[in-house]
Backbone:
């Protein structure tokens, strides 16, 4: 995969930040905040959780950057940190929901459901189709097409084998094609 000017500039900023340049770290954070926030939102499905995840991830990135040997790996490394933080947040939220449900079922017969799906009013057909994908497929598609990461980089970011990334991309493409053509998906 040919490296773009953007990737080379990010690599430079990561190297400078790794060496202690605070301004470079600030610029790197400024450039990567929207990308990491979008990734966290795709994983959590909640904008508030996504902001918390990315804030915690930046603390990890700041601490760990000096130990990053290959600054060209910054994108996959940063996405992996966000993925881990999102998984932690989701686990915590699920545990809390289970506790709340158990408590609510003891105090009353009705259990509150927290399954609200957020869609913006002006979402395009493609965005709607992508949003309908399972989280793992949505993350793989977004990292591949929106962040221009390779299969190997996505595998590192999501902490899954490259074959799993390829399978997720295949199923996601099939579902997107079916949704956009108005048919049913088989995968």
Residues:
């Amino acid at each position: 995969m040919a490296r773009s000017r953007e990737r080379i500039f990010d690599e430079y900023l990561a190297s400078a930040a790794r060496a202690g340049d605070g301004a470079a770290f600030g610029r790197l954070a400024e450039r990567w905040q929207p990308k990491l926030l979008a990734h966290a939102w795709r994983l959590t499905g909640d904008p508030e959780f996504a902001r918390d995840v990315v804030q915690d991830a930046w603390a990890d990135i700041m601490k760990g950057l000096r130990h990053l040997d290959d600054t060209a790996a910054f994108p996959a490394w940063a996405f992996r940190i966000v993925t881990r933080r999102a998984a932690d947040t989701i686990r915590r939220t699920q545990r809390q929901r289970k506790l709340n449900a158990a408590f609510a079922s003891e105090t009353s017969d009705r259990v509150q459901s927290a399954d609200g799906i957020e869609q913006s009013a002006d979402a395009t057909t493609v965005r709607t189709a992508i949003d309908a994908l399972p989280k793992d497929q949505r993350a793989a598609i977004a990292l591949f097409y929106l962040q221009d990461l390779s299969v190997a980089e996505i595998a590192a970011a999501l902490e899954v084998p490259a074959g799993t990334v390829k399978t997720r991309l295949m199923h996601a493409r099939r579902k997107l094609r079916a949704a956009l053509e108005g048919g049913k998906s088989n995968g």
Summary: The mean pLDDT is 82. Residues 64 and 144 are 25 Å apart (CA to CA). The radius of gyration is 19 Å.
